[in-house]
């Protein structure tokens, strides 16, 4: 059922890339998936990890808020557009996949996905989610996870139609090396899609400083390479502006084909009881969508998603 609904999203996007009905269908599916997964998870470490991970999605009753899912879909949409136009099988690398949410989504959209993540405990959680997602999908769901430094993974070879990096390029260090290796690993016509907090937005900048605990960016070496055991240089919230991200991708010889801004809906700063009111959510959705299109303010969105193409 989920597979069929996502196949219809994919078809709709092929016909009309910016289809509003396809976006709301995807948001509906994501909301059902996440609520269903939380319902199916036993109390314990995995559920706690997921609740912490989805903290900006959940209302005070632990249900996924429609506005938060709408904002998430806005952010993902450029990726969905790339997936929709590729012929199958579409090989996707989810770089720094964390708990693997988009790895599963792309697999449900029919892609062959490899999620690569440095921290083995996160890979364990990503793998443990497979049973739930497989139970929803009629065919074999093509998703696998590797505990590895994505830089070594890319150096080892492999070709991809799409490489996705969400909230990852600000951690993978050095980002320039990642982008160069990703560009080399893409097939001709393949896409590198990067989504991250936008340093030009004061809230995003403040958050990154608060998380790393210093104004100056400092890397740390707290994580070990799961394959070699050597400490890995880790960029802690090394966010860049959307203009910086565009320059980074162009410097690697990629053509930037789409710059989407999102994060105007206020879902992470407004009180949950307010955001979950349907009237307020509808208003925030409208103003958020208008802001993302407005040429004067769109560059200040909290989040960017940039699509680059290899010639
Ligand atoms: C903020 S999390 C984002 C996770 C996921 N993409 C998401 O959006 O939910 C960034 C992830 O990138 C991973 N990461 C950072 N450097 C990495 C590297 N060199 N190789 C593989 N993963 C890395 C981190 O361990 C972390 O789980």
The Cα radius of gyration reads 18 Å
Shape: globular
Secondary structure: helix percent:
40-55%
Number of domains: 1
Strand content: 15-25%
Bound ligands, named by name, code or SMILES? S-adenosylmethionine
Strand runs, count: 9
User: So how many helices?
Assistant: 13
What is the assigned CATH homologous superfamily? Vaccinia Virus protein VP39
First-last Cα distance: 37 Å
CATH architecture call: 3-Layer(aba) Sandwich
Q: Averaged pLDDT, please?
A: 94
Question: What this model shows, in words?
Answer:
The structure is a single chain. The strands form two sheets. Strands 3-2-1-4-5-9-8 form a seven-stranded mixed sheet, sandwiched between helices. It has a two-stranded antiparallel ribbon with strand order 6-7. Helix 9 (175-185) links the parallel strand 4 and strand 5. It is built from 13 helices and nine strands. Helix 1 (2-15) packs antiparallel against helix 2. It has one domain: Rossmann fold. It is globular and about 50 Å long. The chain has helices spanning 2-15, 20-40, 45-53, 66-85, 101-108, 120-128, 130-135, 150-155, 175-185, 202-212, 242-251, 272-275, 278-293, and strands at residues 91-95, 112-117, 143-147, 160-166, 186-197, 219-220, 234-235, 255-262, 303-309. It has 311 residues and is an alpha/beta fold. The site of S-adenosylmethionine has 19 residues, from strand 2 and helix 8.
